[in-house]
Amino acid sequence: MSDNTVYRASTTAPVNIAVIKYWGKRDAALNLPTNSSLSVTLSQKSLKTHTTASCSASYTGADSLLLNDEPEDIQSNKRTQACLQLLKRFRHDIEVKNPSAPKLSTMPLKLVSINNFPTAAGLASSAAGFAALVRAIANLYELPHTPTQLSLVARQGSGSACRSLMGGYVAWRAGTARDGSDSIAEEIAPVSHWPNLKALILVVSADKKGVASTAGMQTTVETSTLFKTRAESIVPQRMEEMEAAIHAKDFAKFAEITMRDSNSFHATCLDSWPPIHYLNDVSRAAMNAVETCNRKAGKLIAAYTFDAGPNAVIYYEEENEKLVAGVFRYVLQQVKGWEGEYGAQIPSNEQGGLEA
Ligand code: DP6
């Protein structure tokens, strides 16, 4: 008699926005970075991926993934395969130790994922996507692994995904081991540590980005002369300064490092050949708006950062919300043709991420 039992687990994972950027791989196959990075996990109220993983001996065919209702070709996707193989191996180890455990590792997997924000528009969709995929399968397989141990798996799906398995402030240590065993993410402070820090997301464009991050960082590593200095001489010290700023809740220092690191990352993009342009006129207007806020306040009260796309993320402390929102409304009204929107601003919650 065949067993029709369907095993199922669901989870959600948040987006994270780096304040020290990951840009460049030292090993593309294992997805090992050239430098450490640090991010803030956003609240799941506004941006998240929801994933359900199921498996059954009654399922036929290969493992499958539906992303936003569209089938994805995961058989030829090496990154997804690397994650699935590792997770199945962990489950297999449990089954060997406990022969009465159902043989989930041999059953076809069905994965269903939904993003509640634009996919691949520079809004860290791959980070939330792979974090949710890894967490959902780890739950389905009842793996005992910690988020840091699972970060090794998520990293192989997409580098930034390893930072979305934790809430609050998360460092991804580049590590030095050739097999990547020390390239892991760890929470350096929970969201409750700095509850009045907030993020405003400016959706400048919801289109798919021009140069995907994997290809963009490869071009930068191969052609930019600025890149080596950034990875080797600038970021290591910045990581230490940023961790100290977060621990001390020193917003001015946090803001300066965040903006300098975003600018340094985009400078290496511009220094690549062919040059990579992620920012547009609205992005530059957002930078001006932040500078106006800071000038009006006479100190740093707002900070911008941009990933591989034109959308801006603005960090500020809650007590400065009126000034920041007012300046943004005014400056962006002056930009012709801008049809974007503000992200909703909601107070922090207990889920582990910063409200955006
Ligand atoms: C600019 O994590 O998308 O957002 O590892 O190739 O999937 P892959 O790259 P990905 O790159 C993110 C780059 C970034 C900076 C960051 O999030 O640290």
TrEMBL record:
Top-rank taxon, per record: Eukaryota
InterPro entries listed in its UniProt record: GHMP_kinase_C_sf, Mev_decarb, Mev_diP_decarb, MVD-like_N, Mvd1_C, Ribosomal_Su5_D2-typ_SF, Ribsml_uS5_D2-typ_fold_subgr
Record GO terms (molecular function): ATP binding; diphosphomevalonate decarboxylase activity
Catalytic reaction equation(s): (R)-5-diphosphomevalonate + ATP = isopentenyl diphosphate + ADP + phosphate + CO2
Keyword rRNA-binding attributed: no
SUPFAM superfamilies reported in the protein's UniProt record: GHMP Kinase, C-terminal domain (SSF55060), Ribosomal protein S5 domain 2-like (SSF54211)
Broad enzyme group: lyase
Protein name: Diphosphomevalonate decarboxylase
Species this protein is from: Lithohypha guttulata
Lineage: Eukaryota, Fungi, Dikarya, Ascomycota, Pezizomycotina
